[in-house]
Amino acid sequence: MTSTELATNISGPMQFCGLSRTPGPNPDVAVGANLTGKIAIAVVPTKGDAAPNLTAEQRFGISFQTYRQLGKVATALSEKGAAAVVFVQVRDATGLTDCLSTLLPSTQQPRISLPMPVARQRASSPARAAPAIVLSPQASKVVLEALHLTEQELDEHLDDGTGVAARTDVPATLDLAVTIRTDAKACNVVAVLRGSDPKLAHQAVIYTAHVDHIGARMDGAAYNGANDNASGVAGLIGVARMFAAGPRPRRSIVFLVTAGEELGLWGSQFFVDNPAWPIENIVANINFEMIGRTGRCTATEFVATPSYRHSRFSSLGHDAAQIAAGLGITLLPGDEYYRQSDHFPFAERGIPALSIGDGNFVDYHLVTDDAGAIDGRRVHAAMRAAAELGRRVAMDEEAPSTRQAQAGW
Fold it and tell me: For the chain, how many structural domains are there in total?
């Protein structure tokens, strides 16, 4: 089923509002300006000298700040009577185009697709407010050219606030609709290797990795998600092959490939709430989350959570650090990611869990996360460490136990 939550057709002349500043000697929009019936065109503020290699945390932090600022601008222009607010990007030095695709998807904030497949709107905006959208740089160029604005004029406007003169007689029509599909489905994939010991085979070690990513950017470019998280799924499949080759361990091994992780750990939470293996008989969870790039790590390092600094630290983490060291790998505490991957629902149920990964890397949630940048040796190293860890747990007489925070691994 589909349902249309918002549908509107808006026509009117475009009114260029620049950065939409109202105070100062040269305001973009006069204090008493009347925009009734007009489609306000506002510029997304950005600096041209932004660092070219921002970290993922910096990109998202700047994007959140920008997004909040755009909300205030949209409200101000709506209060002046604007029928709609269209934000154009002159340049995208901080990755806003990419971040918008991950800032918005959720059940409360559906995406909007426009005739130009380039727009996103926060659908939870008050019904009385003018609809506001953000265009990709490519679509923005079309609008700005229609207004007879040059790149040089716009660069000067962004850098020092220089005023620009745009056409005021250009008609436009926005045909907006928010359509929600209530019949959309996704599924987890579960496989089991039965244990060999009649006394322990009812217990299981579960490996997890999410197979979903974030779809397409507003300009149609695909987010391939090679590291996030095709690398993790490849690691899980590799571990499964290792176990399938024998010998069969005493405890059973469950392999869970989840969907919906990017939307809020949907697949892993669903499994924990509706377990295909009795949840009380799952003794450990080992999760792969981005294992093919160096990220914040060197070539011989991985981040892991919950680490020895965390209250959910367990003997599983202790053993993992020992095994990794034997393979020339160092585990670094990565507890800032504790709530961000599929180990979390298991850990919160009191099951000893450990997520192994790269940490955020330079192409995180960008269309440049491609297979060509994956280091296969790194994937193999994580796979070997995780396989040996799981085998130790599956063969030991005693199951892993929680240890609380410690001074070290």
Answer: 2
